[in-house]
Amino acid sequence: MLAGIENITIKHLHEVPEHFDTVANWIYNQWWKKPGNTEEVVKAPLREHLQGKGFPATLIALDKGVPVGSVLLLESDGVDELPELTPWLAALYVAPQYRRQGVGPQLVQALEQHAAQLGFGQLYLVATDRVDFYLDLGWQVHLKLVGNTGITIMQKSPGRP
C-alpha cells in the first residue's frame, strides 16, 4: 500500500527536536557517508538549526508524527566558487515509501515560503540529477558547471510560482 500525503504536516526541526537524529542520519547516508566521515560531520552544523532563529533552518515532513522527509535552508551549499549566491535549498530527502506522492514538492514549497518570510529575494540549489523535478516547480537553470561534476545550479525567487 502506498503512503498517502493527506496527513503530512511540515514543521521546523526546532519544533520537533526528537527527530534530529533521524534527519542527520538521512543526510549522512545520502550525501556524506564516506571513509573517514561520521554522522558528526552532519550533526555539528545541523545543531544550529535547533536554535529556532529562522536561518539556517531545517523543515521536516511528518506523517501522523512520523518523519518522512526533510529539506534545509543554508547560507552555502559548498559551491565555493560562487560565494555571492545565498541562501541555498539543500539536502531534500524523502523516505523511499513516500517518494512520487507530493512530499518533495510540499517540502520545497514550504522552504520557499519560509525564505520569502525571511526576506530573501533569490534561492539557489545544486542539482546533480532531478533537474526536471525542480523545473516543474518553477525553478530555472542559473548555471551548469562543466567538467566531471554534472552540477546544475538552479534559482528561484521565493513566493513566485
UniProtKB/TrEMBL annotation:
Stretches assigned to coiled coil: none
Domain N-acetyltransferase residue range list: 8-159
Top-level taxon of origin: Bacteria
Entry annotated with the keyword Transferase: yes
Keyword match Transferase: yes
Protein name (record): GNAT family N-acetyltransferase
Cellular component GO terms, alphabetical: cytoplasm
An example Gene Ontology molecular-function term: acetyl-CoA binding
Xref: PANTHER family: N-ACETYLTRANSFERASE 6 (PTHR13538), N-ALPHA-ACETYLTRANSFERASE 80 (PTHR13538:SF4)
Keywords recorded for this protein, A-Z: Transferase
Pfam families associated with the record: Acetyltransf_1
InterPro entries from the UniProt entry: Acyl_CoA_acyltransferase, GNAT_dom, NAA80
Originating species: Pontibacter actiniarum
